[in-house]
Amino acid sequence: MRWFEQRWARGAALLAVIVAGVLLVGRPAEDGPPLDPDSSGPLGTAALVALLGELGAEVDIDNAAPAAGDEVALVLADDLDDAGRAELEAWVRSGGTLVVADPASTLHPFPPDPTAGLSFVDVPVDRSCAIPALASVGEVEPPAGSVVYELVPGASGCYRTGDLAYLAAVAEGDGVVVAIGGAGLFTNQAIGDADHAVLAAALLVPRPGTDVAFLRPPVPGSGGEGLGDLVGDNVKAALWQLGLAFVVYALWRARRLGRPVAERQPVELEASELVVAVGRLLQQARHHDEAARLVGDGLRRRLAERLGLGPEATAEQVAEVAAGRSGIPTERILAAMAPPPLRSAEALVAHGVRAEAIHQEVLHV
Amino acid sequence: MVVPTRRLALLALALSVPVLFVPLGLVAALALVNGVLLVVALVDGARAPRPASLPVERQLPAVVALGSEAEVAWWVRNPSPRTLVVALADELAPSLRAGTRRARLVVPAGGQARAATSIRPSRRGRFEVAELAVRVEGPFGLVARQATMSLPATLAVHPRYRSAAEAELRINRARLLEVGLRSAPGRGGGTEFDALREYSVDDESRRIDWAATARAGRAIVRTYRAERNQTVVCLLDNGRTMAARVDGVPRLEHAMDAVMMLTHVASRLGDRAGLLAFDREVRAVVGPRHGPGQLARVTEAMYVLDPALVESDYRGAFAHTLARFRRRALLVVCTELAEQAFTETLLPALGLVGRHHLVVVAAVADPAVARWAASVPDDATGTYRKAAAIAALGERRRVAARLRGLGATVVDAPPGELAPRLTDAYLAVKATGRL
Hints:
- The complex is a heterodimer of chains A (365) and B (435).
- With 365 residues, chain A is of the alpha/beta class.
- Chain A has helices at residues 7-25, 46-54, 82-93, 196-204, 233-254, 273-284, 288-306, 315-326, 330-337, 345-363, and strands spanning 58-62, 72-75, 97-100, 126-129, 149-150, 156-161, 164-172, 175-180, 211-215.
- Chain A has two domains: 46-215, no CATH class; 277-363, no CATH class.
- Helix content of chain A is 39%, strand content 12%.
- In chain A, strand 7 (164-172) and strand 8 (175-180) form a beta hairpin.
- The longest helix of chain A has 22 residues, at 233-254.
- Chain B has three domains: 51-158, Immunoglobulin-like; 192-225, no CATH class; 231-431, 3-Layer(aba) Sandwich (Rossmann fold), CATH 3.40.50.
- Chain B is built from eleven helices and 19 strands.
- In chain B, strand 13 (245-246) and strand 14 form a beta hairpin.
- The longest helix of chain B is centred in the last third of the chain and has 26 residues, at 380-405.
- At the A-B interface, helix 5, helix 6, helix 7 and helix 10 of A face helix 1, helix 2, strand 5, strand 8 and strand 13 of B.
């Protein structure tokens, strides 16, 4: 694992972990996006498509406006551009039935309750309904977050709470626009509740063989608008101005006053580095005996010089004189100056300590 | 060159508030605000004087000793009728350790302003200070004009002469001995006859001049002085072994201190001191002369030396010495006692000079190595290092012993002691008349 001690290796490992985490955590959910007609997840609408198919409808799932032969169109989430929206409205006026389950859509004329903004309905709602086609539909349980609409003149409503209705319908040209206060009841997790399936059948498949255009809801994040569209022009101008100020600041900082002054660097090598290197080599080669011999010879030389014997005095001569002066046994001094073979680095350390101890005892330093 | 100032950046930043309230839309609001700002900045830049039109001077000392402090000053005169804000940056190398190399001056109309900083060089050598960058702000301080002016100057950083006090001490002591104000035991006294004077109780009886005593009717002694006009040549090794650091500075610095002290003492005592610096080739030569100016000449020759990472050519240096200085001299070789260099190059070359000159080899010993050799180890690494240090000292001793065997005097001393001990060796040579 020595390679791991290098900085680049640690950085690469960290990067690999991050990439793996992103791939694992950040991969798209297999359930698909909400309201997706191909998704079998709780928020998908595959069950609705299957139901329509079972009832004999010809379901055409597409992003484009319905074709001339389509009789019913379903919009769960309105992400159409102006041209698409106009095309769809023209299709309604020519006799189509449009079911819109997006309260924010402008495809239907029903405003949400103005007194409370988006009005969240209390479930269950009153099933009183003035639309004959829905007479056979029983209770519905709008999910939390659904809204109720004010009815415009000429419109009919079902599932009412006071003057407001969860489902509203109004004629538009030769066609009809039906608005539902949310698409939640068509999801896989809710389609089996109450009479949601019956409501879907009544609205979308009035007879077997109905051609249904299912406008695919947009994938989250695929819209053309961004956060910038929420910001006003003046604020944008101020932000641009901040950017320009930063550019001026960068220009000011980028132009330094005076060039950097370069000079040749001196050699940075300690004279004692060679001694350190030789010590390391001795240690790596495990030359305990050679090191012990050097330490012993150093002791012999220092004692000989201090005792006036001259640097060439033998270990025996030095030991004898030192023993006579200090009272330390000759054998002990001799063993420090000419040590027996050592088996380990620990023995070498002990030898070094002994040699210095004898030096201090003999010379009283 | 025109450059924006911090004030312009701050003004641009401040304009981000009023732009919020300009009811013209995004592009128009930005264009209006920044257009006005751009026009004002252009006017400001146009009204800023050209840096070259301002008389600028730099006051730089010619010589600074390593580690000592000196002052660098800049003067800016303003011939225009309004106050100017001038910033300048000088080309001071980092190792000069200037307090700052930049200054900002407010120069009154028709007047001048001065800025200064201190330098404390950490490195010896010649420093060429050539360029001065000058930036002059416009009247609104939004835009400045900047230019680089050529203002060449040279700063010489001389080696540190740490042993100056020791040198004076030895000069005074030698003079006291010469004039006989003090008597000292030992070998002093010199060999050259100086004068006769009346006997005192401290005088040796062998110094009595009996003929003069008979003529005067009282005891008269002959006094001697050390011989003068002798030649001392320092051969300063500038090779790779002198680059290694001892006590935080290269060996060469310690050797230079020793050369300066020896030159100082020798020239003040009437001898002729010279220098030859070499590595693979001869780098500097100062002919032997006496007099108070010789120390300055030797220092001037040495301060530009940088250790060359090559093997020193002792033979070439000695041959050059023999060719230049034929008179018998004390040759002081300031080098390192490295066994390999000694065996391969110094030893074969010593024969060239040993016959005609007296050779002293001076080297600086590393106190760290001596400390490790005498340390009490507390782990295996320390013990192996102790062994290596003992081996290194043993090698050094062997080289010194072989040099002594060849007739050379060896001075191997740690930093701080090298210069005094080398000078003492020189004084001992003089006192014994060996030269």
